[in-house]
């Protein structure tokens, strides 16, 4: 199980590195297109804004297609051999999964048109009921489907990887032998994935119904409801169901009902935007609406998560910190500036339930405290841009300074809690692979280190799988007991760790990736 989750964690880091960079571009584009920050004159430069808009669209496309990125990365990371075939099959599986859902939905009368809020209200539903139905669906790669976010990618990628590992070397009867081996993987994927889609068609709406019920509880629970909203909003991030919760509070009576200039306004975000457009701002009215909006996010997005990222960097080995900084600095800046948190959250939520639950609890507490302190910031993102534009620039009546004061406390809490848990539980966050006994690694490469290591491992025929993390060569052998530990250490390894009779790890430090490539380059190991 540990080996499985280590592979899963490593697989999840592949799309994270991309969206961390994309988050920076989104943040910069958001700033450069905001007249409250750069001025109306700069925003009026059409040619410049077109370029900025293009960059923003490209970065946004990566976030919009994050589920398929997860499907492919997990299929690659979890496959033992023939990884390109696994990736190819994951794309097929992802499309088939959502096409299955799309087809079943259409058979039951659910389409983009029949699930739109206007259509549903025309059929006699209230705005709340219509919004609840509409929030359960989305369009992925142009396919109308259930809203499952990255959870769909994880499910499909995991299933494809399991099928791949079981059948990639299957031998079929001579008459159909052409379809055996790796060619069989897309075929079995096409057969099995629709069954997963069928199951999820009936199972996933149950989760959505549970979220709707919780939304009603939140609306009737006062200050505790605010806490519950913040807690669940973060806890549901990996599943995508947080979108349902957000839609409910932003656009339905669950988020509030207000009379503004004789017109009834429904939903927290609608109330905030309408009140913001008035000549005289009613901060009491806005405070009631914004308790579900960006103000609750500021303490953990601007202060808490960047501090958590710093803790992850600081707890990495000194030899790994440069690499980890390259990954996380972009993620921290994205969270700080625009409230785009997925790049930093996905670096720990799948590898440490303790850190994930702590983060969700602190999120709930943040929303509750902002409500108690009557903070009025509004909008939906929660980064320093929202803090500045909708808080600081609106004056002290927004009580924005409470968000900063609480945020500073969050920075210390996140940093020290993350640092303690990571070190205490040896959480496998980036850069956490430690060298045994602190030994220095000096690689003895005579030009044939790959062949030397293979020989020490018992030869090509004894090697089943070759992987590496930040510092360790991770091997699956037919028999780990015949490996020559002395010979391996003579190549410069700091240590050899035998997990069991088939799993062996050789510690080489930051140079391990190059060494792994040389071992895979030995004839017979190309697909391992």
Properties at a glance:
Gyrase A, domain 2; 23 helices; globular; alpha+beta; four-stranded antiparallel sheet; 7% strand
Summarize this structure briefly.
With 528 residues, the chain is of the alpha+beta class. The chain contains 23 helices and 8 strands.
Count of DSSP H/I helices: 23
Largest sheet: 4 strands, antiparallel
Radius of gyration: 26 Å
* Fraction of residues in H or I helices: 55-70%
Strand portion: 5-15%
The residue-averaged pLDDT reads: 83
How are the strands of the largest sheet arranged?
5-6-8-7
The overall strand count is 8
| Main structural class | alpha+beta
Structure explained in plain terms:
Helices cover 61% and strands 7% of the residues. It has a four-stranded antiparallel sheet with strand order 5-6-8-7. Among the domains are: 2-221, no CATH class; 436-520, Glucose permease domain IIB (Gyrase A, domain 2). α8 runs antiparallel to α12 and α15 (298-315) packs parallel to α20. It has 528 residues and is of the alpha+beta class. The chain is globular.
Topology:
Layout: H1 2-32, H2 35-38, H3 40-43, H4 46-64, H5 66-78, H6 83-107, H7 117-122, H8 127-134, E1 137-140, E2 143-146, H9 150-167, H10 184-219, H11 222-235, H12 242-251, E3 257-260, E4 263-266, H13 268-276, H14 283-290, H15 298-315, H16 321-338, H17 342-345, H18 353-372, H19 384-391, H20 400-425, H21 449-456, E5 463-468, E6 472-477, H22 485-490, E7 495-498, E8 503-507, H23 512-520
């Amino acid at each position: 199980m540990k080996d499985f989750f280590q592979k899963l964690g490593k697989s999840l880091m592949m799309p994270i590195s991309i969206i961390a960079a994309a988050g920076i571009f989104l943040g910069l584009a958001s700033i450069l297109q905001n007249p409250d920050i750069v001025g109306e004159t700069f925003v009026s430069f059409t040619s410049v804004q077109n370029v900025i808009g293009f960059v923003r669209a490209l970065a946004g496309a990566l976030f919009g297609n994050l589920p398929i990125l997860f499907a492919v990365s997990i299929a690659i990371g979890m496959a033992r051999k023939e990884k390109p075939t696994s990736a190819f099959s994951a794309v097929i599986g992802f499309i088939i999964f959502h096409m299955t859902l799309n087809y079943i939905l259409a058979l039951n009368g659910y389409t983009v048109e029949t699930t739109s809020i206007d259509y549903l209200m025309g059929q006699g539903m209230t705005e709340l009921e219509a919004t609840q139905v509409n929030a359960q669906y989305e369009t992925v790669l142009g396919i109308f489907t259930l809203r499952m976010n990255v959870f769909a990618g994880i499910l499909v990628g995991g299933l494809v990887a399991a099928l791949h590992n079981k059948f990639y070397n299957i031998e079929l009867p001579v008459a159909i032998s052409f379809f055996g081996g790796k060619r069989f993987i897309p075929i079995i994927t096409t057969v099995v994935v629709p069954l997963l889609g069928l199951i999820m068609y009936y199972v996933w709406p149950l989760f959505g119904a549970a979220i709707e019920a919780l939304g009603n509880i939140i609306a009737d629970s006062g200050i505790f409801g605010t806490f519950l909203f913040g807690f669940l909003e973060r806890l549901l991030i990996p599943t995508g169901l947080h979108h349902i919760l957000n839609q409910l509070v932003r656009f339905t009576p669950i988020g509030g009902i207000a009379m503004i200039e004789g017109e009834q306004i429904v939903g927290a975000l609608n109330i905030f935007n309408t009140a913001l457009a008035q000549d005289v701002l009613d901060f009491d009215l806005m405070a009631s609406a914004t308790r579900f909006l960006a103000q609750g996010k500021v303490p953990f997005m601007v202060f808490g998560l960047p501090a958590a990222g710093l803790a992850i960097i600081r707890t990495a080995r000194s030899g790994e910190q440069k690499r980890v900084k390259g990954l996380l600095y972009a993620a921290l800046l994205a969270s700080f500036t625009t409230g785009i948190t997925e790049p930093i959250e996905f670096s720990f939520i799948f590898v440490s339930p303790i850190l994930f639950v702590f983060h969700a609890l602190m999120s709930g507490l943040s929303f509750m405290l902002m409500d108690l302190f009557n903070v009025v910031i509004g909008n939906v993102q929660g980064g320093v841009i929202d803090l500045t534009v909708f808080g600081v620039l609106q004056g002290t009546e927004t009580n924005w300074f409470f968000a900063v004061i609480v945020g500073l406390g969050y920075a210390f809490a996140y940093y020290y809690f993350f640092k303690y848990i990571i070190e205490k539980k040896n959480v496998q966050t980036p850069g956490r692979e430690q060298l045994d006994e602190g030994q220095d690694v000096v690689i003895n490469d005579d030009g044939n280190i790959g062949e030397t290591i293979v020989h020490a491992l018992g030869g090509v025929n004894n090697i089943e799988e070759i992987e590496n993390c930040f510092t360790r060569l991770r091997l699956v052998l037919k028999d780990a007991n015949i490996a020559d530990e002395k010979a391996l250490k003579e190549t410069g390894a700091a240590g050899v760790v035998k997990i069991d009779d088939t799993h062996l790890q050789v510690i080489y430090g930051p140079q391990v990736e190059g060494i792994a490539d040389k071992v895979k380059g030995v004839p017979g190991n190309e697909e391992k």
